[in-house]
Amino acid sequence: MIKVVSIWQLPDGMSEIEFETWYLDKHVGDAQKIPGLRRYTINQVIPDERPNSRFYRMAELSFDTIEIARSALESEEWKYAFVDAKKYIGDFMRFYFDSKDIVK
């Protein structure tokens, strides 16, 4: 399973309530329309004292193959969701993983 994982901060000046309203009411629905998407997992970071705790949320989008993931990232649905998200997220990073479940 191929995972596209993004982790991001809240943008300056936006409250958690404002972000969550947009994220859950709008963005999650947009992301679910991405072609080839097999699984969509959202995570909220539990803050601690470490420097990397500055991040607020992480999302995992899973696809069957790297080819399907690459095609999804070129889709109009992805582009729409990403352009909209850039208005609502602060600093972010994206990673690509080839994931294997060991314990189920």
Structural overview:
The chain has a four-stranded antiparallel beta sheet. The longest helix has 16 residues, at 16-31. The chain has helices at 16-31, 66-73, 76-85, and strands at residues 2-8, 39-44, 57-63, 92-98. The relative contact order is 0.31. The protein is built from three helices and four strands. It has one domain (2-98): Alpha-Beta Plaits, CATH 3.30.70.100. 33% of the residues lie in helices and 26% in strands. The mean pLDDT is 92. By secondary structure, the chain is α+β, with helices and mostly antiparallel strands. The chain is globular and about 40 Å long.
Itemize the secondary structure elements and their pairings:
Layout: E1 2-8, H1 16-31, E2 39-44, E3 57-63, H2 66-73, H3 76-85, E4 92-98
Antiparallel strand pairs: 1-3, 1-4, 2-3
Going across the biggest sheet, name each strand in turn: 2-3-1-4
CATH fold-level topology: Alpha-Beta Plaits
Spatial gap, N to C terminus: 14 Å
Q: Based on the structure, what is the oligomeric state of the protein chains?
A: single chain
Task: Profile the largest sheet.
Answer: 4 strands, antiparallel
- Specify the CATH class: Alpha Beta
Given the helix and strand composition, which structural class is it?
alpha+beta
CATH architecture: 2-Layer Sandwich
What is the chain-wise order of helices and strands?
A: EHEEHHE
How many strand segments? Answer: 4
Q: Write down the Rg.
A: 14 Å
Q: Helix segment count?
A: 3
- Estimated helix fraction: 25-40%
* Approximate shape: globular
